[in-house]
Amino acid sequence: LDDRRRVPTAHGHVTIRTGNLVERWRADTLLTKEPQTIRWLERTMRNDSVFFDIGGNIGLYTVYALTLPGRESARALCFEPEALNFARLNLNINDNGLSARALAFCIGLGGSNGIGSLRVSNLLAGSALHGDRYVAADASNIRTGMVRTTLDRLCAEIPDIDPPTHLKIDVDGPELDILRGGLETLRHRALRHVLVEFEETEMAEGTKILGDAGFKLVDTGAKTQGIANAIYEKQ
């Protein structure tokens, strides 16, 4: 069954499609799975914000960010290369009346431009941990084609899109590659807020890249299996 689940928040309800147990779990834990991300959005999003949701999955944080009160003119660009997640992402955007303010791309971001493939952990919408880091070459025969580009090329070539004020990067592996491919975007004066999910071993390098662009690490979340969210603000 394809249920439209109404998820209560302090600001009203959002609607999330739940056609399997993974999506139901994501809907039910919207406010509790990553409370630091929720607080970050509530604290920093403004009415004129442009939110880049890199690794958008089925769109929970985009939907939440754009339905916060007083953010009726905020906009979002979402990037999700896994096809089933991308389909649900678009449905969730539409179900919440956000199609005029959110634009989704079925592409991957990284450190270079090209066409390749994506190893997929399973074919359930809402799933994560896709890609080379988590899916060994001999562990799955599920692959999809993927177009990849850099953040800088994307921002230079998309017409009529303002540069981001917010970046959320949660892509299960290529976080550093995305930062390396977005050095001009990171230095742009419009970008003030960045949240990245880092492996513990990669946080120092990521913090240096962001520090060179004028950002300071202001908060880190609890570590889960060596992974934590890191929040940066431009000084």
Cα gyration radius (Å): 17 Å
Quaternary structure: single chain
What's the β-strand tally?
12
Helical content class? 25-40%
Give the end-to-end Cα distance, rounded to a whole number of Å: 48 Å
DSSP helical segment count:
8
pLDDT averaged over residues: 93
Q: Mind summarizing the main beta sheet?
A: 7 strands, mixed
**Overall outline:** globular
> What amount of the residues lies in strands?
25-35%
The low-confidence runs, each spanning 5 or more residues with pLDDT under 50, are: none
Main sheet: strand order: 5-4-3-9-10-12-11
The structure class reads alpha/beta
Helix/strand order, N-terminal first: EEHHEHEHEEEEHEHHEHEE
Characterization of the model:
The chain has 235 residues and is α/β, with parallel strands linked by helices. It is 28% helix and 30% strand. It has eight helices and twelve strands. The protein has helices at residues 21-28, 35-44, 60-66, 83-95, 151-157, 175-180, 183-187, 203-212, and strands at 3-9, 12-18, 50-54, 75-79, 102-105, 108-110, 114-119, 143-150, 166-169, 193-199, 215-220, 227-234. The longest helix is centred in the middle third of the chain and has 13 residues, at 83-95.
